[in-house]
Prior knowledge:
By secondary structure, the protein is an alpha/beta fold. The chain is built from 31 helices and 29 strands.
Amino acid sequence: MAVKVEELLTAEINQPARYLGNELGATHKPWDAASVRWVLTYPEVYEVGASNLGHIILYNILNAGPRQLCDRAYLPAADLAAKLRSTKTPLFAVESRRSLTEFDILGFSLSYELGATNILEMLDLAGIPLTWQERATNPQNGQMPLIFAGGQTATSNPEPYADFFDFIALGDGEELLPEIGLILAEGKTNNLSREALLLDLAQIPGVYVPQFYDMAADGSVHPNRPQVPQRILRRVATPIPAYSIGLVPYVQTVHDRLTVEIRRGCTRGCRFCQPGMLTRPARDVEPQQVVEAIEQGMQATGHSEFSLLSLSCSDYLALPAVGMEIKNRLKDKNISLSLPSQRVDRFDDNIADILGGTRQGGLTFAPEAGTQRMRDIVNKGLTNEELLRGVKTAVDRGWDKIKLYFMIGLPGETDFDVLGIAETVRWLHRECRINGRRGLTFNLTISNFTPKPHTPFQWHSVSTAEFSRKQKLLKEEFRGMRGVKVNYTDVRISAMEDFVGRGDRRLAAVVRRAWELGAGMDAWWESLDQAYKAWTQAIDESGLTWKYRQVESGEWNLFEKEEEHDTDADTDTRMNLTAGAGTGALPQPAGAGTGALPQPAGAGTGALPQPAGAGTGAPPLLDQPLPWDHLDTGIDKNWLKIDLQKALEAATVPDCSFEGCSRCGVCGTDFGHNVVVDALPIPEFAGEFVPNTERKQRVRVWFGKVGDMALVGHLDLIRLFDRVVRRADLPISFTGGFHPNPRISLANALPLGVTSTGEIADFELTESIDIESFREKLAAKLPENIPIYKVESIDLKAPSANQLLEAAEYVITVALGGSLTENGELDHENSAPVSVAPDANWEAWVKTIVETEAFWRVHTTKSGKTKDVNLRDRLHKLELVEHKPDSSTSARGATSEGRAVLRFTGSCRSDGNLLKPEHIVFMLEQVSQQEIQLLQVERSQLILGYG
């Protein structure tokens, strides 16, 4: 049964359009025609989840399957979550508006170590028991949906969350989820029990069912029955760009653009990078598929921006050719291209060419470390010369703001390496200065390194105490440095990420208790204090405080003896930080250029350092079992050990997509091989977008905003019209300047939640078009609940509708709520000198308002100034349409007059001279001495003054 969402989305709910499920591209499949009903959920607020590419792709793929229905759900914001609990309403899927318990399967994206608390919040709001054990013993077990998780964190180490899920989907889901759907359909047909169904699912490569595996005392995980595999294979799929075209939300999202994947996987081999290890092999998308997906997607969605996505876009060798081809095809559409963080060593004029345009976005590079030695240890594959060349190219091509990512706390890092971050920025500033230009600004993000499973650094131990000390060093070094803004990752977040991310099944109780204590939205700054308090208390109660203290102080360091060696050299190296100024060379530590690097313990001997306790009979640290060893990601654990040894020697490994095989273990039958598209000839540049500012015709449109579209805000409505005009391919005129915008003007902002049948918009066109044709094209692309009532051609020299606006007519529904004096809400300061008999009715109150000359109220301007305003001067007309007794209001203490429907016309001018429905309520309360409730508002027309 559908949840009555409209009754939940009352005035106190922020951004109600998040929960409507009426976006362009939403698939509303018939409920009864589906054999398997999915809900894909992203455990974040809508603005984050609805723009996630993986979420969109899997949603489109599942709905493309026969007899498969896929709906969506998101983490409700705190206001709606409280409303759901207070009204005992279960969390619902946004399209069908059905409770999540009515579906067959519920999938969560787990892409962040601390995201599980949000998942528990959603399960609790849905009325679903939190663990598979509780669901198995629940009397409604047969009616409960299967709960599963996918995503990077789920694939990396699902053990801390294993109790919460019936199964885990490992790796890429494009082929895996449809296979799961087929097994579910067959299981429902055969009336299989929950356990039998899960046993069938466990036979699918990529499906891990935690309840069929037990944890040993050492944390390792093993099957508890013979029918399931010893190790579970990670799935690999080929990207299909066409499935990226889909949802176009009405509210502004985090990634408010069309995103198309050009390359999946990365073989650069950065030793700290988990995505680079978990997504191998690298698979390039055919350039023609990318170009077609972008061209078709921009037309279908109406977006003004698109992004090409990859872990390393510049390793897609066809990028310059593909980007230029798209740019040429869309050059008349005022379209811009953005790229995520890219390799600075590959940034050149060819990439700059495709990024330039009327809306030049920012650039983001990730040097990761401040010294060459550290970049070699992490296998970044970036030299100082390449870093300088890339940044200089950006500056030469007009960028004056560049974002740089660095990390601290990396294995083998000394204070010299930490301070090298500041020296690198200082050096880049000095070498990239251009006379006569505004100075270069760097926005730095300095994060704390946390080791990740399935990487060569997975055995490393971090120290949050060291994070804090090193952040303090950098803050001192950056103090007073101009043109630099530095953001630091909170050490508390890093501590929690590391504690949970490499944990085992014992942490499930910690995760649950942290949620019970209020942890949630842990990546958001405003929730951090509450989250940290909840996590630390949960850890204390679990008896695992000793383990958390190791995160604070560090268990052991791969480079212990090197740090001791460098302690004495810190003073000398600090003295050399300014060496080489003005030469174009980055200063080097003492001994640089001699071919010698500070050597870690065991370096050159073939021996890896061992933690305290080695030699006691326990397995050496690198041979001890890990909680994720039963997951077959393709990466050979022995190769990780070998690569760790190379890190100790500061030895780099080449990218196997372009050079020899690194023998990591991935390439083969199960995971495939690298697929690399060669560089293509770059098409000749057809020229930048030149905004067509000609104005040949002005069209005025009278339209409505009814039904659920009333919950879409004014700014979102402006974006909607921009996209509609693009999709309808109407010849819209643009403003000039650096940021040209379409000439679309709405007469007046309609308050959120108010319906209307009388809105007005002006469109200016570059060519004359038949009015009926314009109407048909526009109406065909508008949502159903934005009807068009009238379209007229207006003289180009005529004032805009906003300039002509004089008044607005509203129809409002109001109800009595009791005596103002009883409720303590009488405003004596602003009350009007009006006297009305206690037994008066709506008709008498309306008549009194009309006959009264003044209703004074204090108005506060945007600048904070106050002035007295006579609201009666702004009221042109007021009449009673109908009134009737209302049992619902009587129950709340209202008198027998009940509800009333009023129609009024009042000032509505662009200079701020407005009469709002709330002002009518104010006047009614003054004459009635009763509390008046405003139940419903509709704006029936905007009245233009043509002089």
